[in-house]
Amino acid sequence: MSAGLLTFPQAVGVVLGASLGTTSTGWIVSVLGLKVSIGFYALPLVGVGAFMKLLARGRWKSFGLALAGFGLIFVGIETLQDGMQGLSGVFNLAELPSTGVFRHIVMVVIGTAMTVVMQSSSAAIATTLTALHTASINFEQAAYLVIGAAIGTTVTGVLASIGAGVSTKRTALAHVMFNVITGIIALVMLPVFLRVIGWAQIHMELEPGATSLAAFHTSFIAVGVVLFLPFVDQFSRWIERLLPEEGPELTRHLDAAVLNVPAVALEATRRALSETACEMFSVIRGRLGDPGKGVSGFYSTQLEQALDRTQQFLAKIPPVAEDQPLSHSRLAQMHAIDHLMRLRPYLNPPSVLGKTVAYEHLQTEIALCREILEVSENGLRGRMPPEWLEILERKSLELSEMHRQGRPAVLRQTAGGDREPGMALNTLDAMRWLNRVGYHAWRICNYLGGRDNNEDTSIAEEQTHKEDLLRNEE
After folding, report:
1. What is the pLDDT of residue 156?
2. Where are the domains of the chain?
3. Domain 256-473: which CATH number of 2.30.30, 3.30.1660, 1.20.1280, 1.20.58
4. How far apart are CA 378 and CA 374, in angstroms?
């Protein structure tokens, strides 16, 4: 979300799905963990994953790390189970008062505290299931602990959002609101849930104890998802009003929280560069329609600051030498920044374009340049067909060819007395300006549009086009 890979309503949908998906841990523990030693069977996964992390390369190395982490989850769950079995003889929650509002509040607070301390709702629920299995608590108390664990899991997201961008804070707030409201619904409707669970035990052969508790956890989270899902857009807009965007709009995706994940961080910088480029394209295209209207110094400074901040953010992303696609992506973005910096002085068209005579002579080139800028902007915003980069290249080369043929024609007309020397020089400057704008727009889109995955091909293409551009100016 911080990197802009998801819209906020999509992120809220992911939060709802993740909340429902995390209930699977309870089913795994209740169906297998209390009957089979999952940790014993998970140890080979840890070993294989560790060897892959040490010996493999590229994506297999990352897969090995994920495999080892997956195995460690179940080893940790078994360790929690063993600890709870020993604790059952020392501390018995079943001895707490079984009636009254205070009893409900205490159990929910204990469940929340367990999750906060363990920093994992899955671990807290696994511990609760084990406690129920060893008769340390009764079913109703376990239900309150699970509700508390569902509320407490939001603390991890809140901690992660401290010092992060607005997007991360919005997602954390959505997570907190969903889990708290769902927890309140579960508390109010607990008698109903208990009756439904009892009916399922009788008519659907649902096993009492841990399996029934896992079913309760999934049930009340599913009820929350069903209630929230139709109102995701309205809920998202409400949170966006509570936490409005702060800071520059163009660099809103540059969140320091994603720096530890190079792939996500590079996508964040690519999006920031794309939005900055689209803003430049839109401004230049508008100025071509009204050359007499210039760009304010403040606006130009904002664009420069956006480029500087993006460049600084890119420099902070840790290099991943063994990941060639990421290395090429980083290099492509550096090229894009270079072209954007070169394009920034072209925000204001030459004054000659505001003169009727020159405009008439350059009308075809101006129209083509505006087409290039329009295709560039729409392409980076995802509004063009897949072959838009090829279309853009053809138009850029066409503009370059117009420049190549038009320059000597203007000089001949001047030598023959058909043009004033001063106007001719200004016209040549305007033609050069249009050609360079088209060239930089094409290269920026090539580097940010995803086509230039091969470093050598990209540089060769740019060098060829640059040589053509220089020859046209001789």
Report:
1. 75
2. 8-242, 256-473
3. 1.20.58
4. 6
